[in-house]
């Protein structure tokens, strides 16, 4: 079993949170992948294809190629852990995918998007180039090189976006952030969606959920959901429960992550 996670080089650091490599046989099954408000590029090295599931009971199976962009979806989807047995990925910062893909992020909100529909014929050789590498570190080096080859927008951080993401991530209101940045709410909404994908309000809800999950997944105590609701700015416990269920598809009481380090992966009992 080999699992690596590392920070990117300086040119990619403003846009990429990290790169990961995994070679870990996992049994087939289903688990929920919870929304994070961010995008990931994933290349399956163990099999030629990636599957995901949606629908009320995760009964609808979808298939994509072996190289995909996971959009900033606002809902949980089902995935098969066996598809993660060997792969490499790029975890983008919120809005960090903009330099590498021509469509605005608002058009990239599907759970899984085949990379060949975004990069054309260039995507077809991505997996082959990665498989040619002899070590996991060489695979990640090659992934960074591929990203830099695909730059279609300037590699320049947008201070407007950086401030917007930071404020929303800390729980500020959409109207308050727009006012502080000196733009109309409608202008803020349009610019944010073009860069990040979800609307600002949806992004704020997802990031609040992530703060809750971070706290819950590292706690050894029984969770006081009423106290949790007050701490994280929900109206009351019912508001937290409803928001949790809408974003994840499960109630807080059913939340059992794969591990504290994989809080956005929730195995589904068969």
Structural notes for this entry:
- With 270 residues, this protein is α+β, with helices and mostly antiparallel strands.
- The chain has a domain at 2-149: Jelly Rolls (Sandwich).
- 34% of the residues lie in helices and 19% in strands.
- It has nine helices and eleven strands.
- It has helices at 116-119, 126-131, 136-149, 159-169, 174-180, 185-196, 200-217, 225-231, 237-248; strands at 2-6, 16-23, 31-33, 40-44, 50-54, 60-64, 67-70, 77-79, 86-92, 113-114, 265-267.
- Strand 5 (50-54) and strand 6 form a beta hairpin.
- The longest helix is centred in the last third of the chain and has 18 residues, at 200-217.
- The radius of gyration is 19 Å and the shape is globular.
Question: Which helices and strands occur, and which strands form pairs?
Answer:
Elements lengths: L1 E5 L9 E8 L7 E3 L6 E5 L5 E5 L5 E5 L2 E4 L6 E3 L6 E7 L20 E2 L1 H4 L6 H6 L4 H14 L9 H11 L4 H7 L4 H12 L3 H18 L7 H7 L5 H12 L16 E3 L3
Antiparallel strand pairs: 1-2, 2-9, 3-8, 3-11, 4-7, 4-9, 5-6, 5-8, 7-10
Helix pairs in contact: 8-9
Radius of gyration: 19 Å
What proportion of the residues is helical, as a percent range?
A: 25-40%
Largest sheet: 6 strands, antiparallel
Q: Which strand order do you get reading across the main beta sheet?
A: 1-2-9-4-7-10
Shape: globular
CATH architecture group name of the domain at 2-149: Sandwich
Class by alpha and beta content: alpha+beta
Mean pLDDT: 91
**Topology pattern, helix = H, strand = E:** EEEEEEEEEEHHHHHHHHHE
> Strand tally, please?
11
Binned strand content: 15-25%
């Amino acid at each position: 079993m080999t699992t690596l996670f590392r920070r990117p080089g300086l040119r990619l650091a403003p846009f990429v949170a990290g790169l990961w490599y995994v070679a870990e046989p996992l049994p087939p099954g289903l688990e929920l992948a919870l929304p994070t408000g961010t995008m990931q590029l994933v290349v399956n090295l163990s099999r030629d294809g990636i599957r995901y599931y949606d629908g009320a009971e995760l009964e609808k199976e979808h298939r994509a190629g072996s190289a995909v962009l996971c959009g900033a979806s606002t809902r949980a989807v089902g995935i098969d852990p066996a598809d993660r047995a060997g792969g490499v990925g790029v975890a983008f910062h919120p809005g960090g995918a903009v330099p590498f893909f021509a469509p605005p992020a608002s058009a990239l909100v599907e759970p899984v998007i085949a990379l060949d529909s975004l990069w054309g014929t260039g995507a077809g050789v991505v997996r082959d180039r990665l498989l040619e590498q002899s070590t996991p570190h060489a695979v990640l080096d090659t992934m960074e090189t591929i990203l830099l080859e695909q730059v279609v927008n300037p590699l320049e951080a947008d201070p407007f976006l950086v401030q917007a993401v930071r404020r929303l991530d800390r729980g500020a209101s959409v109207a308050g952030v727009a006012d502080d940045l000196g733009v109309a709410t409608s202008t803020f909404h349009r610019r944010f969606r073009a860069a990040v994908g979800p609307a600002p309000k949806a992004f704020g809800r997802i990031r609040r959920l992530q703060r809750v999950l971070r706290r819950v997944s590292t706690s050894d105590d029984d969770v006081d959901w009423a106290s949790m609701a007050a701490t994280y700015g929900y109206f009351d416990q019912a508001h937290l429960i409803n928001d949790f269920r809408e974003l994840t598809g499960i109630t807080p009481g059913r939340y059992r992550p794969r591990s504290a380090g994989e809080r956005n992966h929730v195995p589904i009992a068969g």
